[in-house]
Amino acid sequence: MDTLNELSEQVGQALKKKGWLLATAESVTGGGISQLITDVAGSSEWFDCGFTTYSNSSKTQFLGVPEALIAQLGAVSEEVAAEMAKGALVNTNADVALSTTGIAGPAGAVPGKPVGTVCFGWAHGKISHTERLVFSGDRRAVREQTVIHALKGLLKFLERC
Fold first, then answer.
1. How many domains does the chain have?
2. Whole-angstrom Cα distance, residue 23 to residue 44?
3. pLDDT tens, position by position, 122-149
4. What's the helix, strand, coil split of the chain in %, to 5?
5. In what order do the strands lie in the sheet with 22-26?
């Protein structure tokens, strides 16, 4: 894949092949995944909507992430990423959802979660998958790596569903 646009086009082709709609639930990426997806002409055929739930309260209000889960594990956890993706499915017409939550920096690190920590979630029906990675670089680099991994992870997830 040479460009981010080619990656989002490949995602679109995979979703169109299945006849599925995608929803996103983004925190650390601030809507960057949704923007990249909607840069593709015809994406309305396979993209339903995106949530940019940057605050903890918005994760609870719009995606149904339990406050107690965020209080216990923090917003940057695989469990919260899973709930974000599941909440995006419940609250949309989408067939599959992806989520991102993380610490892009330069501040925000906490013990066990350095700057660059990102958790991902992908969900379809009762199937879900999560990952936790730590990226290097500045804020922009962390966010770009997150977008790329989220979309590549979605392609892998679609192959398994």
1. 1
2. 11
3. 999 999 999 999 999 999 999 999 999 9
4. 45, 20, 30
5. 47-52, 22-26, 96-102, 117-124, 127-134
